[in-house]
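The instructor's notes for this session suggest beginning with a concrete chain rather than abstract definitions. Hand out the sequence below and ask the class to guess, before any prediction is shown, which regions might be ordered.
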Amino acid sequence: MTDLLARLRVPLGFVLSSVVLWLARPTPRGLLLGAVVATAGEAIRVWAAGHLEKSREVTRSGPYQFTRHPLYLGSTIMGAGLAIASQSPWVALVILVYIVLTIGAAIRREEAFLRRTFGTAYDEYAGGRVDVHRRFSLERAMRNREYRAVLGLAVAFLLLWARGTFASL
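After discussion, reveal the predicted structure:
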């Protein structure tokens, strides 16, 4: 089940986004506060993607010095921002369940892959978060396709804004 949830987290997110949009009751203040929180989450993701050499090494620089899963941390913060913007306890519950199930599964799957692929190097990193310095690279973040998350977040807030603006018409 873990593997299935991890693999389906993106398509499941698209399906649940329609539920979130239907349940959302966004207000201008909620949208603004949610956008600030979600943007902070996306900033963490961009920072992480600008350091990540996916499947080539155990990345230890940038936000990986502080947490093993900064992309998932950023996604979780983005989810909190969307919940705030939606101004609905039902949306918050949907997002919470989605994050706990899918990101938890993705972390377990990813850690198993990293241990299989990098062995003791990953265990050393996980145990002590060894510091390695690498400069942030926007080109690396683009190569890691983080622009898709930026675009997705913008579309989500545009849809929430439309929901709040045109719901009463």
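Then share the key points. The mean pLDDT is 92. Residues 51 and 132 are 11 Å apart (CA to CA).
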